[in-house]
Amino acid sequence: MNNTLKGAALVYTLIKELSQQYPNVQIGKTVIQKMMYLLGRELKLDFGFSMYHYGPYSAQVANYLSLIESLEIIDVGWDIQKGYFISLKENKKASDIIKELEDILNQKEKSTIKKMVRKYGSLDPIAIKLSIIATGLFVRDEFGVKANEQLIDIIKSLKPEHSDDYIKRTLKDASVIL
Fold first, then answer.
1. CA distance 54 to 128
2. Which residues are CB-neighbours of 176 under 8 A, at least 6 positions away?
3. What separation in angstroms does the CA of 11 have from each of 24, 147, 166, 174?
4. What gap in Å lies between CA 168 and CA 159, rounded to an integer?
5. What single-letter DSSP state applies at residue 73?
6. Contact partners, residue 165, CB within 8 Å, separation at least 6
7. Model confidence at 104, in pLDDT bands (50, 70, 90)?
8. 27, 90, 158: which is closest to 167 by C-alpha?
9. What are the sequence ranges of the domains in the chain?
10. Which contiguous run of DSSP H or E holds residue 147?
């Protein structure tokens, strides 16, 4: 996706929606990357994702996140024990920028974000399960892996800290496999 402001608007709106619907969920960079992967699939947008240790990763999405952080409309904090924390920032001076970002998206994009947040925002632990789900979809889409057991084996090789059963349940719960 070449439109930087549109990408930044999608990331901002995703963070805003997650914050509103699930105020107690830790929103980190992994959550944003995986939700943007799922959003891109749904909206047929190409963010240039490739496989990374935690699943699909996009430098474009990382840049959108950095852009909205530099505009001072989000805070990105770090905790050595828990990782990244992303939150909306109270910034009266940025209200025009926020309004502009909110106006960039069409109704379909906004409603798709709401739907995605409802579907995945309550996962617990969100970053781990989103990582498994997005990895499963990426491997299936990009490498044509269709067999459930083969998909589970590939994810297990990428994420050996999780049991086969945990991966299988996570993929089933998200309807990635039947």
1. 9
2. 133, 136, 137, 140, 151
3. 19, 32, 29, 22
4. 13
5. S
6. none
7. very high
8. 158
9. 4-173
10. none
From 16, 8, 44, select the one nearest 113 (Cα to Cα).
16
Contact yes or no for 138/51 (Cβ under 8 A): yes
Which residue is it, tokens 């349940």?
169
Q: Are strands 74-79 and 55-57 parallel, antiparallel or unpaired?
A: unpaired
pLDDT of residue 67: 96
**Contact present, 125 and 28 (Cβ < 8 Å):** no
pLDDT higher than threshold 90 for residue 35:
yes
Angle between helices 126-143 and 164-173 (to 10 degrees): 80
Residue with tokens 């990382």: 62
For the chain, the average pLDDT equals 94
